Records
---
Amino acid sequence: MITGSCLCSQVSYEISGKVGDVIHCHCQTCRKAHGAAFSSVASVPDDAFTLKGEENLKSFESSKGKHRYFCSNCGTQIYAKREATSHIILRLGSLDNADGLVEKSHIWVSDKASWYQINNNLPEYQEYE
């Protein structure tokens, strides 16, 4: 079973199903939300995601219809959710364990931090692909 949690452990989760391919998002919103060059994410079906400590989550609508959920105590980004979808966008930095995940691509490379160089052979897309 794949598990994850926030830095202070007030929010944790379990994943009972398949985690999608890893996408590295370089958009400005992800960079600012995570304080990093990019955010590594993967989709998880809603019914495979069990959350504990949900009362400790806060959310922020970072773009129309997309809410980012983070721990109200330590600030760890846990997941995002777009309206009318049947999956979450898991923030992979919150994983405790996860063998077998596969990197797929870099997206929003048009917004990439100027000081960061992509040094792998994954496909790169200027926007969302």
---
Amino acid sequence: MRLATFNINNINKRLENLLQWLGETQPDVVCLQELKAEQTAFPLQAIEAAGYGAVWKGQRTWNGVAILARNAEPVMTRDQLPGDKDDAQSRYIEAAVRGVLVASIYAPNGNPQPGPKFDYKLQWLERLHRHATALRKSGAPVVLAGDYNVAPTAIDIYPTRSWDDDALIQPESRAAWRKLVGRSWTDALRAHYPDQRIYTFWSYLRNRYERDSGLRLDHFLLTADLAGQLTDAGVDREVRGRPEASDHAPVWIELDR
């Protein structure tokens, strides 16, 4: 079973890129983030023509998350992260797919920091931690996939001081990530490549993709049962180098199930 996560950075603008990648790799489940499309603008017809069922939570201009399933219909279980009934940002969706509970996550960026956007980021990650704990305790096999907007350690960002003030690498952000992962979740990409610099995001600025000046922001967290089934993981880096590409590359894992 191949699962992928891809911050598409505007699904309609980059639909051709998405469809090309889907045709090439045919993942069984895909979590998408940053749709940048309101609910009625999701390109369902094109997605279905590519062989995928879909559930999504759109939002005009920003945010938006989706889960696609190849030759199947995801069964949506939740379209909002619990814990704040006034939070109107479309950043979380959850569905049952092929016997696995899958969440597509688009955590807040948090810049500029300090300030209200950074406070919201930390509060959102704490809500995610509480919900993830509840999911894990349910006993279901769970995958939490998406753009967490955290580069967890120094090896997850290219050697530089230019990001020192950025919310993605602040001590508070990294502490929130460590608390979320704890001892019960497995960071799949890092588990498979424990010491390797692997990036999933390259800014459009200053030829950072060409220089491989990237960050690892897109992650899979797995419950223990699924971690035991992990056989492979990787980043489709070349997708980032295509014309009109997202600034993220797809990340994928293979499970023996």
